[in-house]
Amino acid sequence: MTPHVFCLVSERDDLSLLHALADAGVDGFQVRAKTLATGALVALTRAVLTAVRPSGALVVVNDRLDVALAAEADGVHLGADDLPVADARRLAPGLVVGATCRSRAEVVTAAEAGADYAGFGPVFATASKAGLPAPQGIGAVSEAAGVLPLVAIGGITAETAAEVRAAGATGVAVIGAIWRHPDPVGAAKELVAAVA
């Protein structure tokens, strides 16, 4: 099942809040820590798993199939420059495989390669990742919906999450809407309510 709220987690975030976030209804966590050495990334992934698995949340690792397998995570999320989706599916047939997509055509390609969901965006402007293309807007979500479950990402807030869901997204992925909020757990509860 594709999560309704994916929270991206790095080594800079307050890991002591993970259990509370999962209890608040965040049902997916993506470990994304691009600068960590492999051993540290495995350890971070295991810490996330320990904190959120009791709540039944899904845990995927960004970019790194090897780390997902070593840490016994639920899956991997792959970008355009990462291991191809078809190779990840062949190497780890039991894992959830997500793919970053920026158009309906890319979603179709990801589906044909065996992806389970598409991370789609950026929908709105975001300060969480540099070098992204221009925000695509709600219309792009509607256009891309219906091929794979879509997880919309990029500038999503509790205020816009319901709109994104109404446009056809299965769920949303967030960083700043939780981690840069003064009350991360309260913000998570608002997001969960908005996408219910």
UniProtKB/TrEMBL annotation:
Annotated pathway: Cofactor biosynthesis; thiamine diphosphate biosynthesis; thiamine phosphate from 4-amino-2-methyl-5-diphosphomethylpyrimidine and 4-methyl-5-(2-phosphoethyl)-thiazole: step 1/1
InterPro entries, per database record: Aldolase_TIM (IPR013785), ThiamineP_synth_sf (IPR036206), ThiamineP_synth_TenI (IPR022998), TMP_synthase (IPR034291)
Catalyses which reaction(s): 2-(2-carboxy-4-methylthiazol-5-yl)ethyl phosphate + 4-amino-2-methyl-5-(diphosphooxymethyl)pyrimidine + 2 H(+) = thiamine phosphate + CO2 + diphosphate; 4-methyl-5-(2-phosphooxyethyl)-thiazole + 4-amino-2-methyl-5-(diphosphooxymethyl)pyrimidine + H(+) = thiamine phosphate + diphosphate; 2-[(2R,5Z)-2-carboxy-4-methylthiazol-5(2H)-ylidene]ethyl phosphate + 4-amino-2-methyl-5-(diphosphooxymethyl)pyrimidine + 2 H(+) = thiamine phosphate + CO2 + diphosphate
Cofactor: Mg(2+)
GO CC term (a single one): cytoplasm
A UniProt-annotated Pfam family: TMP-TENI
EC number: 2.5.1.3
Residues involved in 2-[(2R,5Z)-2-carboxy-4-methylthiazol-5(2H)-ylidene]ethyl phosphate binding: 126-128, 155
Residue ranges occupied by any Thiamine phosphate synthase/TenI domain in the UniProt entry: 11-178
Keywords of the record: Magnesium, Metal-binding, Thiamine biosynthesis, Transferase
GO biological process: thiamine biosynthetic process; thiamine diphosphate biosynthetic process
Domain of life: Bacteria
Cofactor binding annotation: Binds 1 Mg(2+) ion per subunit.
Transferase listed as a keyword: yes
Binding site for Mg(2+): 63, 82
GO MF annotation terms: magnesium ion binding; thiamine-phosphate diphosphorylase activity
HAMAP family: TMP_synthase (MF_00097)
Function: Condenses 4-methyl-5-(beta-hydroxyethyl)thiazole monophosphate (THZ-P) and 2-methyl-4-amino-5-hydroxymethyl pyrimidine pyrophosphate (HMP-PP) to form thiamine monophosphate (TMP).
Family: Belongs to the thiamine-phosphate synthase family.
Record's protein name: Thiamine-phosphate synthase
Organism lineage: Bacteria, Bacillati, Actinomycetota, Actinomycetes, Propionibacteriales
